[in-house]
Amino acid sequence: MNDDAPKPHCFGDLQTVFPAQADGLRHSPPICMACVFKTECLREAMARPQGVAVKEETLDRAYAAGMVGFMSRWSRKKELHRRKSTSKKSPPEK
CA within 20 to 30 Å of 9's CA: 19, 33, 70, 92, which one? Predict the structure, then answer.
């Protein structure tokens, strides 16, 4: 990957690179699949606070399907909530 190459304006935008579709699931659009930055871009989008919400959606679907038990879901949701709370706080200024 060329780190000097300019990234597109949509880089890391979750609603662009991994939008929710009519079926309730998230899919990357074909234009993103052809982009050389697709993996790095999706990782960046998922590392942002909106990415935590996507992980919560996935966890809720797994619980509804019986793939995750109550205690496991509760524990994971608590960890996701901590991440969300931590990412909202701004770092102290020096």
Answer: 92
Under 8 Å between Cβ of 13 and 45: yes
Can you tell me which residue has the tokens 């609603």? 15
For the chain, domain boundaries: 10-45, 48-88
Check residue 87 and give left, alpha or beta (phi > 0: left; psi -120 to 50: alpha). Answer: alpha
pLDDT in tens, 39-54: 999 999 999 888 998 9
**CA–CA dist 43, 18 (Å, integer):** 11
pTM higher than the cut 0.90: no
Helix (H, G, I), strand (E, B) or coil at 93: coil
